[in-house]
Amino acid sequence: MRQSPLPGIVVLISGSGTNLQALIDAVADGRVHGEIRAVISNQPEVTGLDRARRAGIPAQVINHRDFSDRSGFDQALMAAIDRHQPELVVLAGFMRVLTPAFVEHYDGHLINIHPSLLPDFRGLHTHERALEAGVQQHGCSIHFVNTELDGGPVILQARVPVLIDDTPQTLAARVQQQEHRAYPQVVQWFCQGRLTLRNGQVWLDEQPLQAPLQLSGPAVLADTH
Length: 225
Ligand code: GAR
Known about the structure:
Blueprint (H helix, E strand, L loop, with lengths): L7 E6 L4 H11 L6 E7 L5 H8 L4 E3 L8 H13 L5 E4 L8 H6 L4 E5 L11 H8 L3 E8 L9 E8 L6 H24 L3 E4 L2 E4 L2 E2 L4 E3 L2 H6 L2
The structure holds glycinamide ribonucleotide (GAR).
């Protein structure tokens, strides 16, 4: 009899790995029907690696400083990922810009979470920049990765209010709460075969998305009080 294994996932991290933890927890309690086959970090000794090991997931460091150029690092990363034959590669706080060769290799199978409501605030220091700009709403976006930095088609966003006394830290913490709800949801859609990228367009349940989906729910409402 043919076995149907769970869709394989490889998670790339650079730091604390709270989004990785949200995915580990969601797999453990059945909200994500996938198998995290490996976690790879470009930074040695980060907390995210401990989270993977505690969950019994193979954890590996590929230090970008060991490579003389971006392309060499990306080739090594691709080889390490492909050993696990994943259906999905998840960037979860992975802070390296990837080469077009890498991005094209995983076209339609590579997603990222970015801490802003894209297309606003691409790049770094998004919470500081949101406060400086005086926006009333901020949030996170999960998108398929293409060759444009933080420019791939957005799947799902979660919004939070910006409060009058917010600092970059308090705002980041509010956004991260939503990241931890939103990312498992998107990974589950992908694992269920409901989410695809076709000719640069996001499809969910056989419908092309006309605009990014918006996560709603109690935690968002709770934050407005
Ligand atoms: C997350 O807030 C994520 O949105 C951000 O890094 C943080 C990683 O936290 N990603 C980026 O800025 C990507 N450009 P975590 O390691 O605790 O998941």
